[in-house]
Specification:
With about 190 residues, the chain is of the alpha/beta class. It is about 35% helix and about 25% strand. The protein is built from 6 helices and 8 strands. An 8-stranded mixed sheet has the order 2-1-3-4-5-6-7-8, sandwiched between helices. Helix 3 links the parallel strand 3 and strand 4.
């Protein structure tokens, strides 16, 4: 499975921290390095908003392997470009397993694939879900700064909530939430 990381408009060092944090959780505790391929889209400011540029990056990185399973993880402004790229990938026959939007506040997210949101606080969680979300979402509790959820997902504690069922929230950190989702979509 390929995981396409689509950063927002911020310093690259934050994306590097996110990638390392995610690698520590998924490779050391759960997945083997050959089963999950993390690909960082090299955003340079406004290219984070461009679904076309992300789509081109994927075509080059995956050598046009459209049927290879892909999970998109977008952050902040990168959610805009990522949701467009996910739709393009699917339109051209690609296999989009899921879409994870991290702090894509006020970005409408709809697609013909499972969608999940992660938010740095409860207000962002419920207000963003009004614009599209899936069954399982995450919000930080206690609230953290916007960039903290991207920089250090393994240190951000919060809750996984199953929107339609009303089940009690599950306490975990942001990286664990992503790991659970990746495992779910690896098995499908």
């Amino acid at each position: 499975m390929n995981v396409i990381l689509c950063p927002g408009i911020h310093e690259y060092s934050l994306t590097k921290c996110f990638t390392e944090s995610l690698k520590n959780v998924i490779y050391n505790n759960f997945f083997d390095e050959n089963s999950v391929n993390l690909l960082d889209f090299p955003a340079n400011n406004l290219s984070a908003l461009s679904g076309f540029h992300i789509f081109q990056f994927m075509r080059e990185s995956l050598a046009n392997q459209l049927k290879s399973p892909v999970v998109f993880v977008g952050f902040s402004a990168g959610v805009v470009g990522a949701i467009t790229a996910a739709s393009l990938w699917q339109i051209f026959g690609g296999n989009v397993k899921a879409f994870i939007a991290i702090d894509g506040w006020m970005v409408p997210i709809y697609g013909n694939f499972p969608i999940h949101r992660m938010s740095h606080d409860y207000f962002t969680h419920w207000s963003s879900c009004l614009l599209g979300s899936g069954d399982n979402n995450f919000y930080a509790q206690p609230a953290v700064e916007h960039l903290e959820l991207w920089r250090s997902p393994s240190t951000v504690e919060g809750y996984s909530v199953d929107s339609p069922s009303g089940e009690l929230p599950l306490s975990l950190n942001g990286a664990e939430f992503i790991k659970i989702l990746l495992k779910r979509y690896e098995d499908i």
